[in-house]
Write a structure and sequence with these properties.
141 residues, alpha+beta, Heat Shock Protein 90
Length: 141
């Protein structure tokens, strides 16, 4: 059995906290993730939602950003979908290691690395019609 919550938000930064709240509440209702993992979920979803909002703003899209949270006994899976211009996933630059001073020079571009580090599974599908980020948090990890 799984429960699904879907929301659509305007492409405005002040809606990121709403998405975080809704996704965390849905994950807490499905008693599958530890509290620390729900914190990881909040951070990763915030990053994905912020990136989607920025894509809409850059492209001038007035369409909503779509977020879906599917909770089951074995996982919580969140997808964030935008209708921005997309990007070349394989062309993302490598991040310097955390202990490197070069990392201090990076003020942006860390969101995808953060999402990948926090989620147990992640995927990004991007084209000229938009981007979908899928983040899975598995029970017992």
């Amino acid at each position: 059995m799984s429960d699904t919550v879907e929301i659509e938000i305007p492409a405005r930064a002040d809606y990121v906290s709403l998405v975080r709240l809704v996704v965390a509440a849905a994950a807490e209702l499905a008693p599958s993730l530890e509290p620390s993992r729900i914190d990881d979920l909040r951070v990763a979803v915030s990053e994905a939602t912020t990136n989607a909002i920025q894509a809409h703003i850059r492209s001038g899209s007035t369409r909503p950003v779509k977020v879906c949270c599917r909770c089951s006994n074995g996982s919580v899976v969140v997808t964030v979908r935008d209708e921005g211009p997309g990007f070349e996933v394989d062309a993302l630059p490598e991040m310097p290691p955390p202990e490197s001073e070069a990392r201090l020079g990076r003020e942006s571009g860390m969101g995808i690395s953060i999402m990948r580090a926090l989620a147990d599974q992640s995927s990004i599908d991007s084209s000229s019609e938009g981007t979908e980020v899928r983040l899975a948090f598995l029970v017992g990890r």
